[in-house]
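Troubleshooting: if your tokenizer reports a length mismatch, compare against these two reference records.
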Amino acid sequence: MDKNNLNFYSSLVKFLGQALGENYEIVLHNLEEDHFHIAAIENNHISGRDIDSPVTGFALDLIRSKKHLTQDYLVNYKSQTINGKNLKGATFFIRNDQNELLGLLCINQDISKYQQLSQEILGLAGLAKESHSHVALDTALFSDSVEILEETIEGIIYSIVSPDLLDQQITLNKDLKVEIIRQLNEKGVFQIKGAVSQVAKILNISDPSVYRYLKIAEQTK
């Protein structure tokens, strides 16, 4: 994303954050090559993320699936913070004249207060035991997609690879390390700023080893 686009969408993030209010987190993801990161964010108290936080695993899936080639935006998907707060998400694809994806403008609405209020109203009406009905109604508002708003690259890595494989007490052989790196590469993790060093730390190997295993993984697809 060039400087003009970055300045424009960063200003738009500020405007939307103030116009919509504190229950809406507005996020701009800049998809520079090998440096996917949050470039601007408003009302970040909702997810706890900040400037330069990584994109989510869900966003990586959107990028890899190239949904921007057939859709201008995606709305009404369920998001969730790492502490379990429910949100309703929407993403607008930022593209250039060649239809290449430059960034993502995301809106995450905190709906947890409304869910709590609906429970209280049902309780006052003596219908609290039937609360499953309102849960079904909430679910109907969303698409099948769910985004977990991870704050760290480590969280994204652990959401993709089985925690059993990343247990620090387990000694991984070369083939397993290559397989883990292949899984992460397929999800686009290495496009995130700082991902190589974080993967190296988790696997207890050097940065050059990550690049070496990555090359092997790409050659053995």
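Reference record two:
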Amino acid sequence: MKRILIIGAGSGGTISANTLSQKLKRVIKTGEVEIPVIDDQGKHIYQPGYLHIAFKGENPGKIVKDESKLLNSAVNFRVDPASHIDLNERRLRTVSGKTLSYDYIILSTGCRTTPDLIPGLSGENYDFHTSPDASYKTWEAINGFEGGNLVMGITTLPHMCPPSPNESVFLADEFFRKKGIRDKVDITFITPYPRTYPAEAVNEWVEPLFEERGIKLETFFNIDSVDPDAKKILSVVLEELTGTMDG
């Protein structure tokens, strides 16, 4: 039997498992192929929904589903985090101590944010890419913001979902306009890229929208540190930005 082992049941792992199980359903039925998927929590979070929680106040529970209900019945799903992979021997060990051999492996463990790499950033920022709860915390801050300087953008590279930083700015702009306080909020978008959106073809229509909506732009802005007490962000070339939203 050939075993295709998939680690991680996020969007990539789920799509891979369902696509392969559909294409290989005949040999799976005959026992020639097995597709096990292992995950560390058993819950699937629809990450594009983070934006709707953070800027529209959606219920965080709406984007969380049982992973077992999303996978094809031909897939063997188990909740048991991987602890070690031996690529030479083609074996995986899980936290529970079980060992799985494999013929092919798909790593779909995703990525994680590391705000502690930037001095002062950890615990003093809002984000919508780490969890539904973090996204809702952002919503509470946005919803309670009555005016001042709002700095949004990309802290470092690489980052998740290329369009989401721009989307978040447009959603914040829309929210404050509907609330009737857009004239009291200065929105600044910071990015380490040389333009608003990294792909020039997309940037050609995104950047004019920034200008039209009065969104300030700071390109080539690479964050060096954050001073949460002074509410200032310092770049590696000593540029300084000030925000007024409490973190």
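Descriptive notes for reference record two:
- The mean pLDDT is 92.
- The two ends are 53 Å apart (CA to CA).
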